[in-house]
Design a protein that fits this description.
alpha+beta, FAD/NAD(P)-binding domain, Jelly Rolls, 2 domains, six-stranded antiparallel β-sheet, five-stranded antiparallel β-sheet, 31% helix, binds flavin-adenine dinucleotide
């Protein structure tokens, strides 16, 4: 975390990944040594630090029999803080995070577990063999892309998520499919041919892989995207993408909307989280009438509770989710397809 602060302070974009939701972990010390305090002094953050609850130890003493002897005396040290500071490590880390967040180039992702390291040589081998490099959730770490996603969110009222695709000249292309979200494709380098078919009706809620044979009678709109072009692909539009012999890179911004089913089920889930509902329902032959009677009573009770739900609170949660997606702890990943 300290390195993250130092890099961000030097203007270097840094992403710190922490697998846990907080720093309240196993005990790993609580002593802030005078040398550590001196580093904080040099960084100009020691005054802020000393305003936090902490203890200061100027001398360490030991007792042998009846005799008390001074073991260490910090008051002579050539540092600005001539004492040991004592603060739980999790409070200290929260402090460092707060300092680092003052720099826009600092980015901390909590609950983001590192599951492996990138093998650069293998990555380039796969790329040379025609695989596409996919950089997931780049809006988390590229401020300009984050701003673009926010702008789209504000205009459209959904959550925006950006993925970058870097494809080698002889890649295999993307087979015919339809996505369950709006897509804005920004061609960054090279070019690519997109074939777009009429939008499916009804619009699918899930992404679908499609059989080209089912569209044999339909002439697609064919669009060649070149560097700087922007393409809007409406939700549920079947499309395939073909390379045209150049290295190509594009950013795809997917804008996702909750359905009314999503919002209603979240509201009902609130009620179903009630611990009183965790009792087992025993299902045996012959118990069906009793089960149905109890189910009816519970449904009537649930209906009463549903009408008392605080709709304002659920609505506020969805709006916050749509407006500030970076608060969600999405992992940032790099994969090779
Ligand atoms: C018992 C004990 C007492 C100590 N007392 C002191 C002391 O009094 N004063 C002092 O200055 N130093 C003390 N130390 C040393 C100090 O704790 C370490 O020097 C310091 O914590 C090292 O910092 P770090 O960021 O390198 O690693 P850590 O503080 O260990 O941080 C590593 C972080 O990475 C996270 N992580 C692990 N795996 C993954 C993954 N796969 N993906 C994402 N995140 C992951 C962990 O959850 C953890 O938060 C003590 C250490 C111990 C063990």
């Amino acid at each position: 975390m300290m390195l993250g602060l130092l890099l961000a302070r030097a203007g270097i974009a840094v992403v710190v990944l922490e697998k846990h939701a907080d720093f309240l972990r196993d005990f790993r010390g609580d002593t802030i040594h005078p040398s550590t305090l001196e580093v904080m002094y040099e960084l100009g953050i020691v005054d802020d630090f000393l305003r936090r609850p902490h203890q200061e130890v100027r001398q360490l003493k030991g007792q042998i029999g009846n005799q008390t002897i001074a073991v260490a005396d910090f008051t002579h040290l050539p540092t600005h803080c001539k004492f040991l500071g004592l603060m739980p490590q999790w409070d200290f880390l929260d402090f460092i995070v707060e300092q680092a967040r003052r720099y826009p180039s600092f980015n901390l992702k909590m609950q983001a577990e590192v599951t492996g390291l990138l093998d650069q040589r293998r990555l380039m081998e796969l790329f040379d063999d025609g695989s596409t490099i996919v950089l997931d959730s780049i809006h988390h770490w590229i401020p300009e892309v984050r701003e673009l996603c926010h702008g789209l969110q504000e205009e459209l009222g959904g959550t925006g998520r950006a993925t970058a695709f870097i494809t080698p000249p002889h890649e295999f292309g993307l087979e015919l499919h339809a996505d369950a979200y709006e897509i804005f494709v920004l061609q960054i380098a090279g070019s690519k041919e997109w074939s777009l078919y009429p939008r499916l009706d009804p619009i699918p809620r899930e992404g679908l892989n499609l059989d080209r044979a089912d569209f044999a009678d339909v002439a697609p709109d064919v669009v060649v995207l070149r560097e700087g072009d922007l393409l809007y692909v409406p939700w549920g539009t079947p499309h395939s993408v073909k390379p045209i012999g150049t290295l190509s890179a594009h950013v795809s911004i997917a804008v996702n909307f909750p359905t009314w089913a999503d919002i209603l089920s979240q509201a009902v889930e609130y009620l179903l989280a009630d611990e009183g509902l965790n009792g087992a329902a025993h299902l045996r032959p012959g118990t069906e009438p009793a089960l149905a009677a109890e189910l009816k009573a519970r449904l009537d009770d649930l209906a009463g509770q549903i009408s008392a739900i605080d709709a304002q609170e659920i609505a506020a949660q969805f709006v916050e989710y749509a407006t500030y997606p970076e608060r969600r702890q999405a992992n940032t990943t790099l994969t090779c397809h």
